[in-house]
């Protein structure tokens, strides 16, 4: 479990997060939802220790992340942010192979190569493995970054808007893949999602944020209600049901 206690964060005089406390369950797919500027990405970056904590505490399975060596944390948690600034003259297979670095420390083994190939195959990229990043579409590059994150083979995956640049088919396939990792490989996933219907269909746990605070958290049917979503997004939202899951009608 990731336990967040009294978390606060400022950039200059701007308060980005204010007294955030939450338990993100292990062995579950947790979706962070909310309007632009809610603080979702900042929260994810703090959990992944991409930024230093200012106030509050984050514990990973009972251990303060500030006291966890970076090398050990990289074996427990993989993070994919929105900003992926890696040289474009890098082949997709080489990019995905970066995910194995925490395991081999510059001395790749046959097992590492196999995991890279498996990750490429899982995201439909085997035929593109030899292409450079600037020779593929934005969606294909996004899938390569996701494959790199999965290849790191950690207990926890932190993903910031992983559906960016993905078309309908690949977005659905990604959510199904994440759910499969949780269900079959006992992974734990925390992901920022803008389209709430993906959270409704696939998440086990939802954290709704607005203006740097948590508005609601719990199971999808507890959080994804008309009242909460209308307040969260400042627009009328109706909620129906499909296959026992909430169906959010926000487009009409």
Automatic annotation (TrEMBL):
CDD domains: ABC_Iron-Siderophores_B12_Hemin. The keyword Cytoplasm does not apply. Residues 2-236 form the ABC transporter domain. Gene3D superfamilies: P-loop containing nucleotide triphosphate hydrolases. It is a peripheral membrane protein. Its main location: membrane. This is ATP-binding cassette domain-containing protein.
